[in-house]
Amino acid sequence: MKFDYEINKIHKETAVCFIQKYHYSPMMPRHNIHPLGYFLDGKLKGVLTLGWGTQPEGTINKMFSGLKTNHYYEIGKMCLSPELNKTDAGSQMLSATIRWMKRNTNCLFLYTLADGMMGKCGYVYQASNFYYGGNYSTQVYQLSNGIKIHPQSKEARKLIEKNEIQDNKDKRFGEFVKRFRLSYEFMEENGIRKIGGNMFRYIYPLNKKAKRLMKLSSNLIWNKTNYPKDKDLVWRDETDNKNKTLIERPVFSFENANHKISGASLESFFI
């Protein structure tokens, strides 16, 4: 079935409401600057946000030395109305996004990640003819109630501050060293786990120059023959950094995530 999307920029609050309702994860990077709405017969049926992740320039430079943030956009969130999820509406949504970017931006690339932590290896990107650029390890914190916390989120920083205070009260050295991650002792005491998993890179070149860069000067090897599958999804308990163990897929909860839309709290939706 062909889906003839009409794409329009939409208000941030409209995008947030739709994503909260239909996306598996309520949080997204703060640097998502283009919330796009995908309409069928005048009704909003999908939302996709374009921008950058938590390290905009660092991300593109890991792939292509010397490029800047204006050379690419990263997909922050992508979701559809539930009745479209068992169709190829997602891959057609990506194709429509690529056409929109070619008309409305000067970007070289559309970049995205499949979140292996959430059981995603990127089948929709594979179906949309994206190039695969390998995976890398990532970590999240899981609270005792199942809540998933990004290590660079405000919630994680609050936990780190508590960890620092606790260490400072019982410090064994003359000078306090700022901590950027939770200690094993703090996590054990508070029922927190550090979970490791994989993220999978995908990219789509938007013009001939981008294709040449991928072939001749990328720091990564891009291909369409070595796509990851479910067997490549792994999870590790890394709470004890000296004793990492493979585990079954953890069940994360977002029930109490701070992402309500009311005044300033709209901003708390973003990492």
Give an overview of the whole structure.
The model is unreliable at 171-177 and 256-271 (pLDDT under 50). Strands 1, 2, 3, 4, 5, 6, 7, 8, 9 and 10 form a 10-stranded mixed sheet that branches. A hairpin with a 5-residue loop joins strand 6 and strand 7. It contains 7 helices and 10 strands. It has one domain (6-269): Gcn5-related N-acetyltransferase (GNAT) (Aminopeptidase, 3-Layer(aba) Sandwich), CATH 3.40.630.30. With 271 residues, the protein is an alpha+beta fold.
Write the layout of secondary structure elements.
Elements lengths: L5 E4 L2 H11 L9 E9 L2 E9 L4 H8 L8 E9 L8 H16 L4 E7 L7 H5 L3 E12 L5 E2 L4 H16 L14 H7 L2 E13 L2 H9 L18 E3 L7 E3 L24
Parallel strand pairs: 4-5
Antiparallel strand pairs: 1-2, 2-3, 3-4, 5-8, 6-7, 6-8, 8-9, 9-10
- Assembly type of the chains comes to single chain
Percent of sequence in beta strands? 25-35%
Shape: globular
Number of domain units: 1
Mean pLDDT reading: 88
Please write the CATH class name: Alpha Beta
Assigned CATH architecture: 3-Layer(aba) Sandwich
CATH topology: Aminopeptidase
Task: Report the end-to-end length measured between terminal Cα atoms.
Answer: 36 Å
Q: Would you tell me the structural class of the helices and strands?
A: alpha+beta
Radius of gyration equals: 20 Å
| Helical stretch tally | 7
| Major sheet attributes | 10 strands, mixed
H/E element order: EHEEHEHEHEEHHEHEE
* Proportion of helical residues: 25-40%
Poorly predicted regions? 171-177, 256-271
